[in-house]
Amino acid sequence: MIKIFTKFLLLVLPLLVALEGMAQRYEAEDATLAGGAAKQACATCSGGFAVAQGEGNLTFAVTLPKEGYYNIYLRAAAPGGDKINTFEIGGNTLDFSLKQNSQYTTLKLISAQKLAAGPHLAKIMKSWGWINIDYIAFEEIDGTDRFDLNQTLVTPNPTAESKALYDFLLDSYGDKIISGVMTLNSMDEVNWLKQNTGKEPALAGMDFMHSGRNYTWYNDKEPITDARNWYTRNGIPALMWHWRDPSRATEEFYTQNQGKPNGTTFDISKVTDTNSAEYAAMLADIDYIAGLLKELQDQHVPVIWRPLHEAAGGWFWWGAKGPEPLKALWHLMYERMVIHHGLRNLIWVWTREPNDDAWYPGDAYVDIVGRDIYKDGDHSSQTLEFSDMNNRYGGKKMLTLSETGSFPDVDNLVRDGAAWSWYMPWYGGYTRNSKYNTLDLWKKMFAHDYVITLDEMPELRTYERQDVVKGPTGIWGRPAAARHFIAYPTQVTSHLTVSSTERMHKVEVYNSLGMRVISQKVNGTKATVPFVGLAPGVYLVKVDQEGAVKVVKQ
Fold it and tell me: 20 to 30 A Cα–Cα from 220, which one of 199, 390, 435, 476?
């Protein structure tokens, strides 16, 4: 037993010493304890004590020497099973999880969080409770490099309009936030805001919820008509899809297991059975919506496209069977829309839910990651959510508040450096009721320099990138203007040709998971790369560790 304990100390002490040297530590036993949280002896803990949280809460008095970006760590154990609890600082909260472990481990709660100099109250509050806490620590870092954004869209050869819109989003990111609102009936909330504030948001949300159902009372093309009209005014159309039961057995998108007696039991797991009636039904619906989106492409209208939202919540049928069927459906939709139907005007948005890492479709299928947050009356910047997501996606994806109830106050956004791309409150009461957002807050947002409204939008059709991007950008490589090679055809059947203005030494091909599948030595300015044997899908081509160019294997 002594030998085991000694080995454990040899493993854990270097980490504790390293963390102590680079960060400010705050011992749990020195925090203000409430609700049954209790100090207890702990031989392996840094101060000889820990706090058994139980059903209680801990409040740490933290003083930071200067304003800056900080990583925040928690050293804790969860001997009673997997647990979820809540961390709070500056009025912003984030749920965090710990896997069952009787040994103390160090968890990075937050990465690159902007915090002001001076005193702060940091809290650990019960959700499931019952973890043991050693300390929290704050490590000051250089936050200037927290973003490594993808410079190109995941769709090969995107339309000029979608590229221009994406370039505008990239230029705005971190400098301003784009105002938005969700509509229900043909620009209803946009019109209400115009009447009550004198201004209109830059982004308008529309829904295919009623399209393709043969409703006699509904015009299936209302969403795309609104999108086209909005874009002609330099507005950003954001389309989503509350996808009703593909089998037509019900008109629901919610599932029965969420307490909705009339909910659908449609089985998404059949997505992998190409002979099933469910697969045929899903494919038919995708094809129908693709046809509507194709009309927008033919009219040179780009679309923020946010399908299969909130999947990991489980309340919609597309999330009812876990992550694997959902990812299969996302990939099917992408391949069907982009490859089969040739849609090149879509900017793909994934909507994250807590603890949904296993659900993520992959970097090669997602341009932007959104978060739907409904916290009534909470106008904080949601900066902890932002920092957590930015860390999870490696700073490569722009992040957005794709739905909100109460949206952040602009003063909090600027103070906290929460660089959300846009915010979009839901329609109805969430837009109009002061319980969620007051008219004074709407007016304040629309009048602020940090917030982009419709009247401040540039000419989107001809927009050109303003920011100069320097250096490599991870696996995606340098921006297009800096590349020195081309790869063709973009839709590969058997062989790919790579041509460069400079001598090449190595051509590498990566799949959508970032795994290298081809490495070919070259000594010249042109190379032929065999794709025979590779599965259909999206691939990235790099030359001498630079690039990359996106191609599709048919």
Answer: 199
Q: Hey, how many other C-beta atoms are within 10 angstroms of the C-beta on 278?
A: 16
pTM of the model: 0.81
Please give the DSSP secondary-structure letter assigned to residue 535.
P
Torsion of CA 361, 364, 370, 372, to 10 degrees: -10
Structure tokens at 466: 């303003």
User: Considering the domain boundaries, does residue 468 fall inside one?
Assistant: no
- The verdict on 66 and 90 lying in the same domain is yes
* 20 among known catalytic residues: no
d(CA 56, CA 131): 10
Is there a single domain that holds both residue 440 and residue 539?
no
Q: Please, which residues have CB within 8 angstroms of residue 491's CB and are 6 or more apart in sequence?
A: 156, 339, 551, 552, 554
Q: At what angle do helices 277-298 and 222-232 cross, to 10 degrees?
A: 30
322/362 same-domain check: yes
Choose the weakest-confidence range: 20-24, 373-377, 479-483: 479-483
Whether residues 393 and 337 share a domain: the answer is yes
What's the whole-number mean pLDDT along residues 147-153? 94
Catalytic residue among 29, 252, 385, 403, which?
A: 403
In this structure, the answer to whether residues 429 and 384 fall within a common structural domain is: yes
Segments forming the whole domain that contains residue 361? 160-462
Report yes or no on 481 lying in a domain.
Answer: yes
Is 403 noted as a catalytic residue in this protein? yes
The continuous run of DSSP H or E covering 413 comes out as: helix 410-416
Which is catalytic among the residues 200, 252, 310, 508?
310
Tokens of 41: 């002896």
Predicted local distance difference test score (pLDDT) of residue 258: 64
Q: Are residues 283 and 424 in the same domain?
A: yes
Residue 187 DSSP SS3: coil
